[in-house]
Amino acid sequence: MGIPSETRNYWAQTIRNNNMNNHNTNFVIPSPAEDQRILEARRCTQEGVRAGAKAAAVACVASTVPTLVAVRVIPWAKANLNYTAQALIISAASIAAYFITADKTILECARRNAQYDKTINAVKS
């Protein structure tokens, strides 16, 4: 079972025609202020990703060393923590550090931008 070829061709032709004519109907010019906000949002996101990656790398090393030492020294850990458990402990710490740091960085950057916008609006009025 499938779509009959006539129907499929009709839909394909309709979609092609709409896409060719669509550029005239959806012509929107964003304001310069909106462009600036979009650029600031992208910059904040990139800054958050960089900070999160750094924090994840530090957390990976910081959680790997005690985990591997514990597995070799502590009898309970030696008996109960296999390779999968060790990997889960290390990756959970890294993932948590990444998302927490990225979120805090993005929010702090957005807060800075909001204060900057308030200052500009106060000067204009």
TrEMBL record:
The keyword Cytoplasm does not apply. Pfam families: ENOD93. The chain crosses the membrane at residues 55-77, 83-102. Keywords: Membrane, Transmembrane, Transmembrane helix. Coiled coil: none annotated. This is Early nodulin-93-like.
